[in-house]
What does this fold into?
Amino acid sequence: MSLLGDARLVAAKDLRLERRSKVGLAQMLPFALLVLLLFAFALDPDRGVLDRATAGLFWVTVLFTAVLAVQRAFSVEVDDGVMDSLRLSGLAPAAIYLGKVAALVVQLAVLEVVLALGVVVLYHASLEGWPLLLAVAALSTLGIAAVGATYGVVAARLRQSSALLPLLLLPLLAPVLIAATRGSDVALGREAGGGWSWAALLGVFAVAYLGLGAALFRPLLEDT
Amino acid sequence: MILAFGVWGYITVAWVVTFSVLGLYSAWILRRGRELSRDVPEDQRRWM
Amino acid sequence: MTAPAPGSQLAATRVAPNSTGSTATRVLGTASLAGLAALAVFGLAISPSDAKLGETIRILYMHVPTVSVAYLAFVLTAVASAIYLWKRTEFWDLLAASSAEIGVVFFGLTIFNGMMWGKTTWGTYWEWEPRLVTTTVLFITYIGYLVVRTIPTEPRTRGTISAVIGLMAVVNIPITHKAVDWWRGLHQSGTVLGKVDPDMKGSQLFTTYLGLTTFLVLFAWLLIHRFRVAFLAERAAERGLQGAIAERRAEGGPAGGGTRP
It folds into this structure.
């Protein structure tokens, strides 16, 4: 109980901060929609490329925006010395980690819903294959948040987040991008084949990095 | 005929580049080792 | 790090005073050179061209050993990282970092040789085939590891962060492999490694094993030297720091002594 309860405490604190300041969403959402627009400029709506590439463009946008989200999630803490009070708080590091992951998941979920609307409107996408689509989205988000929470601490501590975080985060998330895009394409009926296999791979990714992240958070917290 | 020559060209490049990179890397390591050895006194050179 | 008793170190690992060499490295180094020479002879001359691959198999004699050593290096980095997080001794941190650097070098060579093979087989330097793609993604991943090592921080922080990255990265290897294989494996034939012929016999098989063994020995040689260089660099940095502190103290001593309240 206490692990999950503590995690929920941490998540609630983060989300409350977000809701009050609104800075995160105010920065992330326009950026994400802007990326959608830029892709349309680059790929020319009339040539059918946008239509075929919708899933890929969606997930690339999510990834880039997620980097922003992670940067934000941790820069505030380190600047205000909140990391120190977290360390001394007596909360289990794994709980803090899970709380951070949960907060990131919520933010990313909001982002994805808005982006999905954007894609439906701007790219004329039609969303079908709900169960698979939801599974793919949920597991991808979990995986992105799991890795993001770990590397967020690293980048914030090194004070190099703007250059370093993408370099660390994006190669690691390459399989997520591949699996999410392929799985989404199957769900949307644009591709035949084992969509649930992709979802399973995303699940393995999420579980592996949640476990690893929870285990590694204690040394990260103590030594940074 | 031309393709056969081409193949050997790429084989040569592959082997030469591989050996060269490894050779240069090794040389760099050895040289750094000698330079740093000068800076570090005998009693601090133990490890493992 | 106080020096242990003089006789307690293995004779083979006792290091020369002005370099990073020892008996062990001399043995390994000689063996590597011999092996590389033999590999060149067998790989380029004695072993015949392949029934399926033609002469391009000679590029694979380089490509297969480099990728194998690279993966070994990264696994070693991960293991050393895990042990570092447990034992917290400098040895494991430096071992992890040294192994990672060597791994990146070998990965780079792997990609290059893969491109050479591709040019002879597909006519292009790059195709979106599983092995090349996976290797490139992992290459960039470990470049990130090396970049983090260059950021100036306290050794303990750097060690912890590097260990975290080392472990996160190694877990990604099988997952990326699977993802890329599923993604590109369906559409491609003639992947780089997939065609290492299981029916390979005689001198071709021998050459392949010779290459693997030689590069393994070379890896050991490189690792020992690279580790020692890293160790010396830490000691030199410490001395530099201590020297600066000592200078400061000397400045403040005679003049400042009289201002005590």
Summary: Chain A is about 85% helix and 0% strand. Residues 108 and 141 of chain A are 7 Å apart (CA to CA). Residues 2-223 of chain A form one domain. Chains A and B do not touch (no CB pair under 8 Å).
